[in-house]
Specification:
The chain contains seven helices and eleven strands. By secondary structure, it is α/β, with parallel strands linked by helices. The chain has a seven-stranded mixed sheet with strand order 3-2-1-4-5-11-10, sandwiched between helices. Strands 6-9-8-7 form a four-stranded mixed sheet. The protein starts with a helix and ends with a strand.
Protein backbone atom coordinates (compact mmCIF):
# COMPACT_ATOMS: atom_id res chain seq x y z
CA UNK A 1 0.00 0.00 0.00
CA UNK A 2 1.32 3.45 -0.90
CA UNK A 3 2.40 5.68 2.00
CA UNK A 4 -0.19 8.36 1.15
CA UNK A 5 -3.00 5.80 1.15
CA UNK A 6 -1.75 4.36 4.44
CA UNK A 7 -1.86 7.81 6.04
CA UNK A 8 -5.40 8.41 4.73
CA UNK A 9 -6.50 5.09 6.17
CA UNK A 10 -5.29 6.07 9.65
CA UNK A 11 -5.69 9.82 10.13
CA UNK A 12 -9.00 11.68 10.55
CA UNK A 13 -9.98 13.29 7.26
CA UNK A 14 -9.66 16.87 8.54
CA UNK A 15 -6.11 16.24 9.78
CA UNK A 16 -5.12 14.59 6.50
CA UNK A 17 -6.42 17.55 4.46
CA UNK A 18 -4.46 20.04 6.58
CA UNK A 19 -1.25 18.06 6.10
CA UNK A 20 -1.92 17.63 2.37
CA UNK A 21 -2.50 21.38 1.86
CA UNK A 22 0.57 22.53 3.78
CA UNK A 23 3.27 22.02 1.07
CA UNK A 24 1.22 23.83 -1.59
CA UNK A 25 0.60 26.75 0.78
CA UNK A 26 4.32 27.08 1.31
CA UNK A 27 5.10 26.76 -2.40
CA UNK A 28 2.45 29.35 -3.20
CA UNK A 29 4.46 31.97 -1.31
CA UNK A 30 7.09 31.80 -4.05
CA UNK A 31 5.22 30.62 -7.19
CA UNK A 32 2.42 32.62 -8.79
CA UNK A 33 -0.13 31.61 -11.45
CA UNK A 34 0.85 32.45 -15.05
CA UNK A 35 -0.58 35.70 -16.36
CA UNK A 36 -2.91 36.12 -19.32
CA UNK A 37 -4.23 32.56 -19.41
CA UNK A 38 -7.55 33.03 -17.70
CA UNK A 39 -8.45 32.84 -14.02
CA UNK A 40 -6.23 30.30 -12.27
CA UNK A 41 -6.55 29.53 -8.54
CA UNK A 42 -3.58 29.44 -6.16
CA UNK A 43 -1.96 26.08 -5.61
CA UNK A 44 -3.39 25.48 -2.13
CA UNK A 45 -6.94 25.74 -3.52
CA UNK A 46 -6.41 23.05 -6.15
CA UNK A 47 -8.04 20.50 -3.85
CA UNK A 48 -9.69 18.58 -6.73
CA UNK A 49 -6.61 17.41 -8.63
CA UNK A 50 -2.91 18.01 -9.34
CA UNK A 51 -1.55 21.13 -7.67
CA UNK A 52 0.26 22.46 -10.67
CA UNK A 53 -0.60 25.43 -12.88
CA UNK A 54 0.27 23.79 -16.21
CA UNK A 55 -1.57 20.58 -15.32
CA UNK A 56 -4.56 22.65 -14.23
CA UNK A 57 -4.73 24.25 -17.69
CA UNK A 58 -3.95 21.03 -19.53
CA UNK A 59 -6.71 19.06 -17.81
CA UNK A 60 -9.23 21.78 -18.63
CA UNK A 61 -8.32 21.93 -22.29
CA UNK A 62 -8.29 18.14 -22.55
CA UNK A 63 -11.77 17.93 -21.06
CA UNK A 64 -13.10 20.65 -23.38
CA UNK A 65 -11.84 18.66 -26.36
CA UNK A 66 -13.60 15.59 -24.98
CA UNK A 67 -16.83 17.54 -24.48
CA UNK A 68 -16.81 18.75 -28.08
CA UNK A 69 -15.53 15.64 -29.86
CA UNK A 70 -17.05 12.77 -27.88
CA UNK A 71 -19.95 14.15 -25.85
CA UNK A 72 -21.19 16.58 -28.50
CA UNK A 73 -21.31 19.78 -26.44
CA UNK A 74 -22.32 22.87 -28.43
CA UNK A 75 -21.71 26.57 -27.59
CA UNK A 76 -25.38 27.13 -26.80
CA UNK A 77 -25.79 24.29 -24.29
CA UNK A 78 -27.07 24.62 -20.76
CA UNK A 79 -24.62 22.74 -18.53
CA UNK A 80 -24.88 21.48 -14.96
CA UNK A 81 -21.50 20.59 -13.47
CA UNK A 82 -22.01 18.67 -10.21
CA UNK A 83 -18.77 18.70 -8.27
CA UNK A 84 -17.15 21.55 -10.22
CA UNK A 85 -14.30 21.74 -7.71
CA UNK A 86 -12.06 24.75 -8.16
CA UNK A 87 -13.01 25.09 -11.84
CA UNK A 88 -10.26 23.30 -13.72
CA UNK A 89 -12.87 22.04 -16.22
CA UNK A 90 -14.82 25.30 -16.06
CA UNK A 91 -12.23 27.86 -17.15
CA UNK A 92 -11.94 26.57 -20.78
CA UNK A 93 -15.72 26.90 -21.16
CA UNK A 94 -15.50 30.67 -20.66
CA UNK A 95 -14.37 31.09 -24.25
CA UNK A 96 -16.54 28.30 -25.67
CA UNK A 97 -20.08 28.75 -24.34
CA UNK A 98 -21.99 31.60 -25.98
CA UNK A 99 -23.69 34.43 -24.11
CA UNK A 100 -27.09 32.73 -24.35
CA UNK A 101 -25.71 29.51 -22.81
CA UNK A 102 -25.86 28.66 -19.11
CA UNK A 103 -23.35 26.99 -16.83
CA UNK A 104 -24.23 26.03 -13.25
CA UNK A 105 -21.48 24.61 -11.05
CA UNK A 106 -22.30 22.86 -7.79
CA UNK A 107 -19.66 22.01 -5.20
CA UNK A 108 -19.56 20.75 -1.59
CA UNK A 109 -16.26 22.50 -0.78
CA UNK A 110 -17.07 26.10 0.12
CA UNK A 111 -13.55 27.23 -0.82
CA UNK A 112 -14.14 26.35 -4.46
CA UNK A 113 -17.50 28.10 -4.69
CA UNK A 114 -16.17 31.26 -3.01
CA UNK A 115 -13.18 31.49 -5.35
CA UNK A 116 -15.25 30.83 -8.48
CA UNK A 117 -17.90 33.39 -7.51
CA UNK A 118 -15.21 36.02 -7.00
CA UNK A 119 -13.07 35.27 -10.02
CA UNK A 120 -15.46 34.07 -12.75
CA UNK A 121 -19.05 35.19 -12.24
CA UNK A 122 -18.49 39.00 -12.14
CA UNK A 123 -17.20 39.01 -15.75
CA UNK A 124 -19.22 35.98 -16.86
CA UNK A 125 -22.77 36.27 -15.46
CA UNK A 126 -23.93 33.16 -17.37
CA UNK A 127 -21.64 31.15 -15.06
CA UNK A 128 -23.34 30.50 -11.71
CA UNK A 129 -21.94 28.58 -8.73
CA UNK A 130 -23.87 27.01 -5.86
CA UNK A 131 -22.60 25.58 -2.60
CA UNK A 132 -24.27 22.26 -1.75
CA UNK A 133 -23.45 21.43 1.87
CA UNK A 134 -23.75 17.66 1.42
CA UNK A 135 -22.25 15.38 4.04
CA UNK A 136 -19.30 13.26 3.01
CA UNK A 137 -17.22 11.67 5.74
CA UNK A 138 -13.95 12.28 3.90
CA UNK A 139 -14.54 15.52 1.94
CA UNK A 140 -17.23 17.36 3.92
CA UNK A 141 -17.57 15.76 7.37
CA UNK A 142 -19.64 18.65 8.75
CA UNK A 143 -22.11 18.77 5.86
CA UNK A 144 -25.74 19.39 6.77
CA UNK A 145 -27.45 17.63 3.83
CA UNK A 146 -27.78 13.92 3.07
CA UNK A 147 -26.91 12.77 -0.45
CA UNK A 148 -29.78 10.29 -0.64
CA UNK A 149 -32.27 13.14 -0.08
CA UNK A 150 -30.82 15.64 -2.56
CA UNK A 151 -33.28 17.47 -4.78
CA UNK A 152 -31.56 19.40 -7.56
CA UNK A 153 -33.00 22.94 -7.39
CA UNK A 154 -34.01 23.09 -11.05
CA UNK A 155 -37.19 22.41 -13.06
CA UNK A 156 -37.61 19.27 -15.13
CA UNK A 157 -35.80 19.24 -18.49
CA UNK A 158 -33.50 22.19 -17.69
CA UNK A 159 -30.11 21.05 -19.02
CA UNK A 160 -28.54 19.74 -22.21
CA UNK A 161 -25.57 18.27 -20.36
CA UNK A 162 -24.85 17.17 -16.79
CA UNK A 163 -21.24 16.40 -15.84
CA UNK A 164 -19.86 14.73 -12.73
CA UNK A 165 -16.09 14.30 -12.56
CA UNK A 166 -14.77 12.26 -9.63
CA UNK A 167 -18.05 12.65 -7.74
CA UNK A 168 -19.52 9.15 -7.92
CA UNK A 169 -16.05 7.83 -7.01
CA UNK A 170 -16.81 9.09 -3.49
CA UNK A 171 -20.42 7.98 -3.10
CA UNK A 172 -22.23 4.83 -2.00
CA UNK A 173 -24.34 2.93 -4.56
CA UNK A 174 -27.74 3.99 -3.16
CA UNK A 175 -26.68 7.64 -3.34
CA UNK A 176 -25.43 7.22 -6.91
CA UNK A 177 -28.80 5.75 -7.91
CA UNK A 178 -30.63 8.68 -6.30
CA UNK A 179 -28.43 11.24 -8.06
CA UNK A 180 -28.99 9.56 -11.42
CA UNK A 181 -32.75 9.75 -10.90
CA UNK A 182 -32.51 13.49 -10.21
CA UNK A 183 -30.15 13.97 -13.16
CA UNK A 184 -32.57 12.19 -15.47
CA UNK A 185 -35.32 14.51 -14.25
CA UNK A 186 -33.42 17.75 -14.99
CA UNK A 187 -32.05 16.57 -18.36
CA UNK A 188 -33.83 17.61 -21.53
CA UNK A 189 -35.01 14.73 -23.76
CA UNK A 190 -31.91 13.62 -25.65
CA UNK A 191 -29.68 15.43 -23.17
CA UNK A 192 -26.54 13.69 -21.93
CA UNK A 193 -24.86 12.94 -18.67
CA UNK A 194 -21.13 12.23 -18.51
CA UNK A 195 -19.67 10.89 -15.27
CA UNK A 196 -16.49 9.23 -14.07
CA UNK A 197 -16.33 6.16 -11.84
CA UNK A 198 -14.15 3.43 -10.48
CA UNK A 199 -15.82 0.37 -12.00
CA UNK A 200 -14.96 -3.25 -11.38
CA UNK A 201 -15.89 -6.69 -12.57
CA UNK A 202 -14.31 -10.11 -12.15
CA UNK A 203 -11.70 -9.42 -14.82
CA UNK A 204 -10.62 -6.13 -13.30
CA UNK A 205 -10.37 -7.66 -9.82
CA UNK A 206 -8.21 -10.48 -11.18
CA UNK A 207 -5.98 -7.95 -12.91
CA UNK A 208 -5.55 -5.87 -9.77
CA UNK A 209 -4.80 -8.95 -7.67
CA UNK A 210 -2.31 -10.31 -10.20
CA UNK A 211 -0.45 -6.98 -10.14
CA UNK A 212 -0.16 -7.19 -6.37
CA UNK A 213 -2.25 -4.05 -5.86
CA UNK A 214 -4.39 -3.59 -2.78
CA UNK A 215 -6.59 -0.83 -4.22
CA UNK A 216 -10.28 -1.41 -3.39
CA UNK A 217 -9.33 -4.36 -1.24
CA UNK A 218 -12.13 -3.76 1.27
CA UNK A 219 -15.58 -5.05 0.34
CA UNK A 220 -18.76 -3.24 1.37
CA UNK A 221 -22.40 -3.89 0.40
CA UNK A 222 -22.58 -3.53 -3.41
CA UNK A 223 -19.22 -1.73 -3.63
CA UNK A 224 -15.57 -1.74 -2.61
CA UNK A 225 -13.29 0.86 -1.00
CA UNK A 226 -9.58 1.44 -0.53
CA UNK A 227 -10.06 3.14 2.84
CA UNK A 228 -12.03 1.35 5.58
CA UNK A 229 -11.51 4.32 7.91
CA UNK A 230 -13.14 6.76 5.46
CA UNK A 231 -14.80 4.71 2.70
CA UNK A 232 -15.90 7.81 0.74
CA UNK A 233 -12.22 8.52 0.07
CA UNK A 234 -12.59 6.20 -2.95
CA UNK A 235 -15.47 3.86 -3.83
CA UNK A 236 -15.80 1.45 -6.73
CA UNK A 237 -19.06 -0.11 -7.97
CA UNK A 238 -19.81 -3.03 -10.27
CA UNK A 239 -20.12 -2.08 -13.93
CA UNK A 240 -23.08 -4.41 -14.54
CA UNK A 241 -24.96 -2.94 -11.57
CA UNK A 242 -24.35 0.56 -12.86
CA UNK A 243 -25.59 -0.20 -16.37
CA UNK A 244 -28.84 -1.55 -14.92
CA UNK A 245 -29.28 1.58 -12.78
CA UNK A 246 -28.82 3.85 -15.78
CA UNK A 247 -31.50 2.08 -17.79
CA UNK A 248 -33.81 2.00 -14.78
CA UNK A 249 -33.54 5.79 -14.53
CA UNK A 250 -34.33 6.38 -18.21
CA UNK A 251 -30.72 6.83 -19.31
CA UNK A 252 -29.19 4.90 -22.21
CA UNK A 253 -25.45 4.41 -21.62
CA UNK A 254 -22.85 4.15 -24.36
CA UNK A 255 -20.06 1.56 -24.04
CA UNK A 256 -17.96 2.25 -20.94
CA UNK A 257 -14.63 4.01 -21.46
CA UNK A 258 -12.54 2.05 -18.97
CA UNK A 259 -9.73 4.10 -17.47
CA UNK A 260 -6.04 3.84 -16.87
CA UNK A 261 -6.41 3.23 -13.12
CA UNK A 262 -7.22 -0.45 -13.74
CA UNK A 263 -4.61 -0.98 -16.46
CA UNK A 264 -6.74 -0.16 -19.51
CA UNK A 265 -5.19 1.86 -22.32
CA UNK A 266 -6.69 5.31 -22.60
CA UNK A 267 -6.67 7.53 -25.72
CA UNK A 268 -3.58 9.72 -26.03
CA UNK A 269 -5.71 12.86 -26.02
CA UNK A 270 -7.41 11.83 -22.77
CA UNK A 271 -4.35 10.95 -20.70
CA UNK A 272 -5.66 12.83 -17.66
CA UNK A 273 -9.41 12.80 -18.31
CA UNK A 274 -9.71 9.02 -18.75
CA UNK A 275 -7.69 7.89 -15.75
CA UNK A 276 -11.03 7.00 -14.16
CA UNK A 277 -13.74 5.11 -16.05
CA UNK A 278 -16.13 7.31 -18.05
CA UNK A 279 -19.80 6.65 -18.77
CA UNK A 280 -21.78 8.77 -21.24
CA UNK A 281 -25.54 8.31 -21.38
CA UNK A 282 -28.47 10.02 -23.10
CA UNK A 283 -31.90 10.58 -21.66
CA UNK A 284 -34.31 8.39 -23.58
Amino acid sequence: MHFKQLIKNVLPATVFHILRDAPSRLKGLFVRPPMGRGPIPPLHLMFDGPRDFELFLRMGEETLGFYKKTVGMTPGDSVLDIGCGIGRRTVPLLGFLKEDALYVGMEIDRRGVDWLCRNITPNNPRFVFIHQDIYNKFYNPHGALVASKLVLPFPDASFDLVALWSVFTHMYPKDIAHYLAEISRVLKPGGKVVASYYLYNDEILRRLNSDGQSYFAFELPDCRTSNPNNPEDAIAVKDAWLSDIYRNKGLQPLPIMYGGWSGHTQPADLAMTNLQDIVIAAKT
